[in-house]
Amino acid sequence: MTDISTDVLIIGTGPAGSATAALLSSYGIENMAINRYRWLANSPRAHITNQRTMEVLRDLGRDVEDEAYMHASHQDLMGENIFCTSLAGEEIGRMKSWGNHPLSKAEHQLSSPTLMNDLPQTFMEPLLFKTACSRGTQARMSTQYVSHEQDADGVTTTCLDRLTGMEVTIRSKYLVGADGSNSLVAEHADLPFEGKMGVGGSMNILFRADLSQYVAHRPSVLYWVMQPGADVGGIGMGLVRMVRPWNEWLIVWGYDINQPAPEVDAELATSVARQLIGDPDLDIELLSANTWTVNNMYATHMQKDRVFIMGDAAHRHPPSNGLGSNTSIQDGFNLAWKLAAVLKGQANESLLKSYSEERAPVAKQIVTRANQSIGETGPIFEALGMGAGVDPEVMAENLSALCHGTPEAETQRKAIQDTIAFKKYEFDAHGVEMNQRYKSSAIEADGQPEPAFEKDAELHYQPTTWPGARLPHCCVFDKVNGAKHSTLDLCGKGKFTILTGIGGEAWKSAAEVIAADLGLDLAVHIIGPRQAYIDHTGDWARANEISDSGCVLVRPDHHIAWRAATLSTDPTADLQRVFKQILGK
Ligand code: FDA
């Protein structure tokens, strides 16, 4: 018997599920999110929060964005990744990370109105979940997904109410599996995966201790420690991660995946902490400890008819590059507006297939990148003569040898500097975070060739209005009060938006016809002198790659659906053709 019904049922209230719920509720779509536990993340796993994710939060509202900054450690504090023999020991080298190199900082500032920051998952999840529930999401905690069956009209999901032990069935039009890396929804939907789970073993040790004396003079979120065992399992090296400056920490330390997972009790946790910090008398307040596995697996397809998977359910990888929660939230930004458009009758169900077309390549890209980053730590060990494992005596000798005035020592010093600098592919890979360009049935490029990347596409974001790319951020100014707005702020919020200029007024009347035909909320902004928004700096004119009378059609997720170089002879017919292609109507 069906007890409950909703339009979209979301399994999981992690970053993926809570973000999707918050977006759907903001778009006025009835949805329900369930979680098998009574509350949200109990440990601060994800923390690096990139600009693209902050744009999603900003789209949810400036209050949501501001609250994230309020809880986060500021980008400046994310500082430099430190490589050392222990926090109290010798520093081997460091690299400016997370947009803190002045050149990288400039690229960040030019790319987005938002700031990268360090927001532990224990703050991000409640923020997204609260936003969802306050806007209409029905949340059911202590409710465990068991199975689902779909038919032509919807999905019937069977759950276990863990408080009563009773079975609950929930009928929905669509089901979203945001149930993490052991996703049962993905398994039951029989979705295809490539790669391997459990390629390495790791333990997390969360504790409180004031470590200011070791770190406050060299702020960072990540302190990498090279010690015996640091090259076994884990994420490339021993890691002491700042959770709250400078008195809450998370250690990530590897174990051999071919051996049984160790039991991380207080004794083991304290000894690992003392060893990595380099203080044999350190007292820690242990908050929690657990083991987890490094995975290297991604879904090659993320939809089975009315069932979708997202987040770790679809991409399973180590935390290197800090992409997991970020990509999970961005999956939600891609799917939520599409579900809303279909449920509101504005789009045909064919729109939904673009979700997997667009996000499955991203899943593959980030899983590959994160695992590659672990491998790229190896050369630092080799540069220090540690190719065959870390031997403390050999390491001490090699570190001493670095001080010699010999050509060999100079070569080795350079090798260490180069291998650490190369870690920018993990710690300053702005292109990986921002360069997502979609190719799908929900994009109409009209055969225009994709612009080649002029710099390394993993390191540098390259703005373009080529259809499929994210709308470039430029500041434009309010005619009435001079206030500065990002072009991204003129778009989104669940709506399609047309940006045009002087001479493009006919796009506005064409848009009114389309909006009335499809029942769409379609915004049009004319940017130019004495218009509502003025491009005083000329930045938008330089970035938009169209003439003033042309237009850029932006999807609710800020990605460009289509563009016209100039005003066409029949703007209404053009928009009708494009919307038919995208929305199937
Ligand atoms: P997540 O696993 O978070 O949530 C799954 C949800 O589904 C939970 O609510 C769970 O209770 C629920 N669930 C599961 N099975 C269920 C069932 N049968 N019934 C009901 N509910 C069920 N990422 C990042 O972007 N930046 C970073 O810096 C880091 N750093 C980092 C460090 C460390 C040490 C780790 C281990 C991980 C990271 N990550 C990260 C990765 C990040 O934590 C991860 O990618 C996200 O939590 C994934 O979010 P999801 O919502 O997809 O799954």
From TrEMBL:
Coiled coil: none
Keywords for this protein: FAD, Flavoprotein, Monooxygenase, Oxidoreductase
Domain of life: Bacteria
Domain FAD-binding span(s) in chain numbering: 6-370
One term of GO molecular function: monooxygenase activity
Protein name: FAD-dependent monooxygenase
